[in-house]
Write a structure and sequence with these properties.
Blueprint lengths: L2 E4 L14 E4 L2 E7 L14 H18 L7 E8 L5 H11 L6 E6 L9 E8 L2
Parallel strand pairs: 4-5
Antiparallel strand pairs: 1-2, 2-3, 3-6, 4-6
Helix pairs in contact: 1-2
Length: about 130
């Protein structure tokens, strides 16, 4: 199957050797998003909630560019530098997702690019 590279100006441009997303058939692999503001490529200011919201907004933009939406995500990986923010992730995620929720992992990590507190990636399945 052919690979289609997904790119949008509505989400941060890649800061490394990767694509925002890659579509193979009806499956879309969304690269990790950190709380970068697409227009400035600067980290969002504010607390952890602001970071989590920005990441979901970035994922939404890439999902839409691929022809889907967050509801099409079947697997979501969440990387946190402080797992004490796990309840806040659940709270914010409930604003963006409804049941049935995707499969998910929350992983504590030592650090993330640009000193972000959160990064998320996922797999989306389109109809």
């Amino acid at each position: 199957m052919a690979k289609e590279i997904i790119a949008t100006e509505q989400a941060p441009q890649a800061i490394g050797t990767y694509s925002q997303a890659v579509k193979v058939g009806t499956t879309v692999y969304l690269s990790g998003q950190i709380p970068l503001i697409p227009e400035s490529m600067e980290m969002v200011e504010g607390d952890m909630e602001a970071q989590i919201v920005r990441v979901f907004e970035n994922l939404t933009a890439v999902a839409k560019a691929a022809g889907g939406d967050l509801k099409d995500i079947v697997k979501l990986n969440i990387f946190l530098t402080d797992l004490n923010h796990f309840p806040l992730v659940n709270e914010v995620m409930a604003r963006y997702f409804s049941q049935p929720y995707p499969a998910r992992a929350a992983i504590g990590v030592a650090s993330l690019p640009k000193n972000a507190g959160v990064e998320m990636d996922g797999v989306m399945e389109l109809d």
